[in-house]
Amino acid sequence: MKPKALIVEDDDRIIGSIEDTLFSIGHEHDWATNQHDAQQMLQDSDYSYVLLDLQIPAKPNRGGADKEFGCNLLRDIQHIKGRGRTPVIVMTAYSADCLDLSTELYANGASEFIAKPFSNKGRTLASVIRKVLDKQEPPLPTQPPPIDKPPPTQIPFAGGELVFHADRITLCDVTVLVNSRAKQMRKILDELRRRGTKGAFVARSGPELVDLTGIRGGQNSVAGAVRDFRNNVTETLLEHLGIVCGSQDIIRSGGPGYRLNEWITIRVAESEAEKSSDANDAPAEDPDDGRRERILAELRKGEKLRAPAIAARLGCCTKTVKRELDALRTEGQVEFIGPSKTGHYRLTE
Question: Matching CATH topology for 4-135 and 151-269?
Answer without folding.
Answer: no
